[in-house]
Design a protein that fits this description.
Blueprint: H1 10-19, H2 21-41, E1 45-54, H3 62-65, H4 80-90, H5 93-102, H6 105-108, H7 119-130, E2 131-135, E3 141-147, H8 150-208, H9 231-266, E4 275-279, E5 287-289, H10 292-325
Helix pairs in contact: 2-10, 4-8, 5-8, 8-9
Length: about 325
């Protein structure tokens, strides 16, 4: 039996294509018709797009608002840290769950969350399939939502950006509020001690009949000339200046704490912008699909290639069988 080597090159591919052209073309046309029906049934979807830069945390911070020296130039827009925070907040439940509840996404997608135990999970999964909050390479955040209703889509995107701005503001306000509260708590303790030392100082001045300012810390104000002598008088001077020094320190601390508390309270102002929106979503967003003509053409040419490969396999199988039987 003669062993013939099986060869297959480009000319053989062309030969097989011509031989099976009716079947290959028929398969491509049939697949294209099915794709046409599918795309005809599918509804159009639209993409709503919005973007923003996070605001600088330093710009509205206490260190900038109450600076004592000339501050170097501060960017209005946030850096990497602010972008990371905005991204994390945007993808948190405080934003995603809020959007799902606010826009009644379960009703919009017609998913039963009351009777279906996995309904809420399905709503979240489908919503996140169409919604995204991501950071770009330009230190800003992009918000995208795709839906069949372009009016609905742009409202979701804009509300998402408003929600991120609100949640970031609440975070900064919460931190500054708690810091101010901690300082006020210490301020109350200092005020109590100051009142106690003030009462003690008043009693000592009356007891020893010394009304001059003799605190060691008041170097530029003390002009004291002793008016008596003796152990009791000297004891009174020492006691008064000790109490007066402590009281003066407490008074300065109270003023400092009060000033700090007011500074942190100023930073709780809710009018500071946390994001700078560069593009609000509009109701006339671009079409996101389906792209019918492109889809049908893709199916047609893919079917041609598949049909040709199938024909080549059939032809190779037949040729190999004849070679073995020869």
């Amino acid at each position: 039996m003669e062993n013939k080597e099986l060869k297959f090159d480009l000319f053989d591919v062309i030969r097989v294509g011509i031989k099976w052209k009716k079947y290959i073309l028929g398969l491509a046309i049939a697949a294209s018709l099915i794709a046409s029906i599918y795309y005809f049934i599918e509804k159009n979807t639209y993409q709503a797009y919005g973007s923003f830069f996070p605001a600088s945390a330093v710009m509205s911070g206490r260190i900038n608002l109450f600076r004592e020296t000339n501050q170097e130039w501060i960017d209005f827009f946030g850096g990497e840290n602010e972008v990371d925070r905005a991204s994390v907040v945007g993808n948190s439940a405080n934003v995603i769950s809020y959007l799902i509840d606010t826009f009644k996404i379960s009703d919009h997608y017609k998913i039963d969350t009351k009777n279906d135990p996995d309904g809420a999970k399905k709503v979240y999964k489908k919503f996140m399939k169409n919604f995204s909050i991501s950071r770009s390479g330009f230190k800003h955040i992009e918000v995208v939502f795709t839906d069949q209703d372009n009016q609905f889509a742009y409202k979701v995107v804009n509300e998402a950006m408003n929600r991120i701005d609100d949640q970031l503001r609440k975070l900064y306000i919460s931190v500054n509020t708690h810091l101010a509260a901690a300082i006020d708590n210490r301020l109350d303790s200092i005020s109590t001690s100051l009142n106690m030392y003030t009462d003690s100082l008043v009693n000592l001045r009356v007891q020893y009949n010394i009304y001059d300012l003799i605190g060691p810390g008041r170097k530029n104000m003390v002009n004291f000339t002793p008016r008596s002598s003796g152990v009791q008088y000297a004891k009174g001077i020492e006691a008064i200046q000790n109490i007066e020094e402590i009281k003066d320190k407490l008074a300065m601390d109270r003023a400092k704490y009060m000033s700090l508390s007011n500074e942190f309270k100023t930073s709780t102002y809710g009018g500071f912008p946390m994001i700078h929106v560069t593009q609000w979503a509009t109701p006339n967003g671009p079409k996101a699909g389906p792209f019918r003509i492109l889809g049908v053409l893709t199916v047609f040419f893919a079917s041609l290639v598949f049909g040709l490969l199938l024909a080549i396999l059939i032809d190779l199988f037949g040729s190999n069988k004849e070679r073995l039987n020869a």
